[in-house]
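Changelog-linked ticket: phosphoenolpyruvate example.
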Amino acid sequence: MTDYVYDFAHGGRAMADLLGNKGANLAEMTRLGLPVPSGFTITTEACRVFLSTGRPPPELERQVADHLSALERAAGKRLGQADDPLLLSVRSGARVSMPGMMETVLDIGLNDYSVLGLAKTSERERFAWDSYRRLVQMFGSTVMGVDGSLFEETLTRIEDQHHVPDDSRLDVCDLIRTVESFKDLIGERTGRDFPQAPAEQLRQAVLAVFASWNGERARLYRRRERIPDDLGTAVTVQTMVFGNLGRDSGSGVAFTRDPATGRRGIYGDYLPSAQGEDVVSGVRNAVPLQELGALDPASFGQLQEYMDRLESHYRDLCDIEFTIERGRLWMLQTRVGKRTAQAAFTIASDMADEGLITNRQALTRVNGEQLTHLMFPRFAVTGGADVIARGVPASPGAAVGAVVFDSAEAVRRADAGEKVVLVRNETTAEDLSGMIAAQAVLTSHGGKTSHAAVVARGMGKVCVCGAEDMIVDARARCLVADGLTVGEGSVVSVDGTEGVVRLGAVPLVESDVMHYFDSGVPADGTVRDSVRHVHRLMLEADAARHLEVRANADTPQDAARARRFGAEGIGLCRTEHMFLGDRRRFVEAMILAEGDAERSAALAALLPLQRADFTGILEAMDGLPVTIRLLDPPLHEFLPDRTDLAVRVARREASGAPPDARDTALLAAVTRMHEENPMLGLRGVRLGLVVPGLFAMQVRAIAEAVAERERAGGTPRAEIMVPLVDAVEELRLVRDEVERVVEAVSTETGVEVSCPIGTMIELPRAALTAGSIAQEADFFSFGTNDLTQTTWGFSRDDVEAAFFSAYLEQGVFQASPFETIDREGVGRLVRIAVAEGRAAHPGLELGVCGEHGGDPASVGFFHEAGLDYVSCSPFRVPVARLEAGRAAV
Ligand code: PEP
Ligand code: MG
């Protein structure tokens, strides 16, 4: 029989797939002997059964009942008993944490009888009735589906009747009346009663948590975070403890290090006399955790000890929720905490220094996406008089945008291409779509552990929260700060590193990390303190990786920059970029040439220009390989637009002027060369085989540039790459021509020029016949852009705008296959070509130069596939180095 329920005492951290992150970590803390209120976890497997069949597994009810009885026996009290009742919390907990995205129901077990028992034992009648009021409200909306605002309206009406500003001023009689009104509301709206039987409350709450896996918020969050839809959530059922029982009680959230900066030392928020939800929602401003030291030194000391234990046990930043109930500390949750990019590098590097983790482990704690984030620009100014609001620097970075006051407006403006800053008093899970749409989130309430801060950090969004002097009036659509009224649409600059907001768009400058990469490490190895951690982990990545990293670059400037960024060569030099600008006229002349002589003259005019291009690049990359690709795009791309030309010719004709011979010839050529599907037409190697002399000119320019660099004392290492090969015969023909030209240049110059000759593998047929092609190739470079286009049959220029958002929405894929390699399809072709290419030609060099070469999520695949290098744009070189290092550990 399948076990669908596990007591906290049975289970542990390694079981997160089954118990969810929360359940697994509660079990782990229980095993470590920490004071965890007892409970049990219903597995993700049970949820998956529910999601696929619409019903929980038949055994579940019995298993829950058994665990509940055990819990009651151990506690010595029963759920719903009329005297000191046991109360439970029911919470979601997937394998991957999804903060606030699913449902929670607290105080399960309260009913018309047990509320009296709770009132008696807690000696706080008001507390008992308020808890019951909260249960009926939470249960009514999340489990029974009554619109939450109806409860709010009822509550406001009762507050108004009693002339009190908020519910904390309602007395016991008012609360009893509120509970009755809420129950009536549920009856009216659903035709059912609020269930009095605690076991029934529990059963329904569990099903509601299961169902919330497919709630709108949760689905949106998963799509953004690329969390698979089929994981399901576990449900933890835990004995309630109360932080709202008076001054010797309270709740808090704590981190073992600062999750924003990574600095050592415990960090967090504490809210005396409150329940955990109040801290996380940011509704009330908490005090810094350190103040607990003065309020309750014993609990504070204990908490510190537990935090030390957890951090050394998990060997990572731990994020903890705790409650103190009448001076007794309870640990309610722990998990490896989310952190900013900056904190990730700092913590990984510090923990390696402290010997908590190895250097290689430290590498696995950071990723390319975080590094990209650190390379973004920062504001040019710090401090200053133009600051209009200050708050908690909850998630660092620089963002400029128009202020908006609700999620709908944020999404509307962002869809129209505007950058926005979402401003709220505090955020709730309802604000998720707005947070995704915004550049930054700004709140007037809440600390570093508030919902806004936690979610923004997880997303890498800039966030300043708890800007208490700022008044947010969402209804009037304005904020008031520093005496200024800032209306919706006004532009502000939010500095999440400093925690300040300025009016207007503040200019940006290069980040320290970008400066570090762009200036290269000084000979003595010393770097600025702000980039010490990045430097350390980059050294580690370089030492660990097997993949080389090259750059896609076609100018000496780009080549030089790529080299400073750590590129070990050029993996793709696209020569088509050298045929633009002033040179178009030579290309035109080549295309329009009537006869060999005219064409040769046009090519001869291009030759010295190409030679100079290659000489410059080979010089910038001296000693390192430079893979130069022969011309790839269809030639008509270098001619004027057909419609423009036709209009020009027709206008001239209509005006009675004599025809312009050049325009007429150009129009005839453009018309002749027009293709319905140019991407599948006359391009790549096909051009080389049908346009006489074109590839020969390019090869000559390369060979002469090599000879020139050799004579100048350099070490040029040019490689010649043929694009869009489908069949080995194409490559054989081009290879013969290339060899002939290189030999001729060697004879003419007296310099022994030798260039490896290889091909791109960017068509499915090439991948599938890689064994034959490898016999004519010294290297393969996977052109995963075209390979994705032709494998999926997706036009790379059209489909992303046309329907990818619908495909992402409907879960056809979780990321664009043009961004992140499709391992199953395109990846399989790559693996086939690697295996068959290497089998036919041992020592064949293999690389990738499509966009995927610099995509953090794809580099690991190329490592696994056994490539020798990845090649990407210069700015992505550091990211690829880091990811290649991570892939190797
Ligand atoms: C490719 O197709 O992956 C490639 C690198 O070539 P291009 O993008 O120039 O077609
Ligand atoms: Mg291509």
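Closing comment: Example verified and attached. The chain has a mean pLDDT of 92. The chain has four domains: 5-239, 250-339, 376-509, 545-573+621-630+690-888.
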